[in-house]
Structures are given as C-alpha cells and as structure tokens.
C-alpha cells in the first residue's frame, strides 16, 4: 500500500479569459493536482527509478500550468502542434510527459485532431465509471464477501486520485454499492452504505493508492464470476 508523503496536495482553479468581447462569462474548468508524470509524487521526493528524479515539484507544477494556461483558453481545443508552439516556455520532455498524464487521467481528450480540456462537469461524468482494470472489474461487478474492505478502499482511493471532492466520492461509492449489488450480498459490519463509506474517509484524506487494493479485490471477484 502506498501513501503520499510530504507537502499537502495543491489545487488550483484555472479560469480562462473570454476569447471574444462577446463572451460574457468566464469558463470554469476543473481543479487540478500536479503529480509527477513519471511516479505521481506530489512533492520533490520522486521514486528511485523515476525518470524525473531530481526535478523539483515547482518545476513539475509549472509544466502543467504551461499546458493548462493554453488549453483553458481554447474551449474548442487546438492541435498538439499548436499547443507546443503556444506554451509560455520551451517545449521539453516534462511538458510531453505532463500532457501524457493529463490524457491518461482523462483531463484532456482528443476530438478529431484537436486536444481539448474537459470542463469540470464533463470530467466528473467521464471518471464516474472506471474504464481500466483492476478498477473496471471492481466497478462493473461490485464487491463480494471476502473483498469488501479492499474493494471499498480501492473505490474511495480511485475517486480521490481522479480529483473528485469528498462529497462527490462519497456519493459515487454509495451509488456503486447499491447499483452493483454489492450491498445486497451482505457481509458488512456497518448498517448502511453511508456508514461504510464514512469509515473509509481516512483513505481519501491521506491519499492512499488504489492499485494494490483494487488488484486484490479483482482477484476475489473473478473467482465468483
């Protein structure tokens, strides 16, 4: 089980400037945290085998903000070549890796030949259903007796990782427990889904990882399929 150490996670809300004088409202885009695109640390202490070992966290953060300052001002997106030319710094390997991380985390999507930053609402809808294993199996089939603790832990950690707030995480996990059939299978000590999820609040607050718990839950679930 991995745990993030060091400075607290940093969040920023990027507000794009109107593209034309006719634009009467600012476009609010999602809050972001800036993990190292190599090892996902959120401070200057990288994993030993990380390709960005020695790169300070403020430098990693700046690579992201260089990208977001351009993408947030282009609601219809822009080609990657144009993005490279528009970032307010010389394009380098860290920019490329940060863009890759934004795409993997589904913050940035490809619409035709254009890269587009999702709005907060679009991102929330997209990440509510995990599409990669082991979380896809856990989400689609629901927990079963023998892996409840790991499955709920992993679901909370997943939603924390993709950037949902605690109320959003709580709502999504409760809905998953009910709609996947996990709660009806029994085997829980808590009396309600809400009580169960609240007992895992520390997973969200401490930023624990989801992968190990998700893999353990997936193995048990697959034996019941």
Please describe what this structure looks like.
Helices cover 46% and strands 8% of the residues. The chain is mainly alpha-helical. The protein has 2 domains: 12-120, Orthogonal Bundle (Arc Repressor Mutant, subunit A), CATH 1.10.10; 128-224, no CATH class. Strand 3 and strand 4 form a beta hairpin. Helix 5 (135-141) packs across helix 10 and helix 6 crosses helix 10.
Low-confidence stretches: 1-31
Q: What string, H for helix and E for strand, traces the elements in order?
A: EEHHHEEHHHHHHH
Helix proportion of residues, in percent? Answer: 40-55%
Q: Quick one: overall form?
A: elongated
Q: What is the highest CATH level, the class of the largest domain?
A: Mainly Alpha
Termini gap: 26 Å
Gyration radius from CA atoms, angstroms: 19 Å
Strand order of the largest sheet: 1-2
CATH topology assignment of the largest domain: Arc Repressor Mutant, subunit A
Largest β sheet strand count, sense and barrel closure: 2 strands, antiparallel
The count of DSSP E runs of length 2 or more, i.e. the number of strands, is 4
Mean pLDDT figure: 85
Number of domains: 2
Give the class from helix and strand content and strand pairing. Answer: mainly alpha
Say what oligomer this is: single chain
Number of helices: 10
InterPro entries: DUF7474
